[in-house]
Amino acid sequence: MPAPDRTAPDRPVPDRPAPLVAPGPVLPSEQRARYARTVQLPGFGEVAQRRLRAARVLVVGAGGLGSAVLPLLAGAGFGTIGIVDDDSVELSNLPRQTIHRERDLGRPKTASAADAIHAIDAGIEVRVFPERLTSENALSILDGFDLVLDGSDNFPTRYLVDDAALLAGVPVVWGAVHRFGGQVGLSWAAHGPHYRDLFPVPPEPGSVPSCAEAGVLPSVCGVIGSLMASEATKVVTGEGDLLLGRVVVHDGLRGTFRELPYAADPQAAPVTELIDYELFCGVSSAEVVAGAEAPSAAATTVSPADLAARLAAGQPHILLDVREPWEADIAELPGSLLVPLDVVVRDAPGVAARLGDDPLVIICHHGIRAETARTLLEAAGAPGVVLVGGLDAWSREVDPSLPRY
Fold first, then answer.
1. Against a cut of 0.85, is the pTM above it?
2. How much is the pLDDT for 87?
3. Exposure string for 324-362, b = 16+ CB within 10 A, e = fewer
4. FRET pair for 324, CA 20 to 30 Å: which of 73, 114, 225, 342?
5. Any idea which residues carry the catalytic annotation?
């Protein structure tokens, strides 16, 4: 998602904030031995290590970025680590979510990640929140943490984390990955611009594919996650130059890094409360949480259970699958017509003319692309409904034999 041009070449460099966390107790001999190679770093020393041991950091997401971040935080000596994630480990996670193992398949990611952290350092306090972060629970979950690392993979959660952290008065180190590249930045309204200054409005729904839809090079998660862990260390200890007002952009195919400066938006409305972030980003809750049907979208959606009943009754239908061919090779509903979303975008009237008059059900992985296709096809004279939660929800609720990816 391109950022608006708010660069200010002559803007003053933000003052370096004081260390975020006061030093904890003097390290016992075992910990001095453990961190011997860290405390000898110039300007770091045992005091910085004691700050890390006293720090309480919350990581949102135990997926690709979380898998890179969490072991690094544990190894660095962060004393308290919280993990928020409502997902379970699946086979397709393992290439990039390396904190999880084959033996963890089906387990909550929070439990798997907690075990991995304790395998590195049994003395770390791990707090797990095996639930989705929402406007209702975000402030209570953030309470008691000094710093948030956001490794979420959707825009509603990113805006939610930024707003909640702003209200709680804590900084956020955020990362994002997409195919062969990624970004990392620091959002800290008390000392500089924050995420909403860089991205004041979310992208159009369906315009930015998720990791599940577009894929991501596993090593990119490691690069961006490592940068996030380094930034968290700098924020806590007060060492180094923080990413205030600048974003690091990594291109894994070219092996390059570049920096994007940005400034606070003086016209931005203040954040005073948490809102409906699915509505703000133009997606329904069903698209963010697979299988949860939004009441306001009842006329344009069909639940997996209802579609299964229609199919079992032999009712006429057209199943239009708008995913990519490689996705259909993994899993598909029998009898569906594969027309990738980019084809619908280029020629919705042509696709509509091919569909006929039977009721149209549009399918994708989670429902986001299907909703984009539904809007285009309806405008072209072919109204239809979207399978809520997509094939992912169908696999969980109707046919567990259908592979999930």
1. no
2. 92
3. beebeeebbbeebebbbbeebbeebeebbeebeeeebbb
4. 225
5. 211, 364
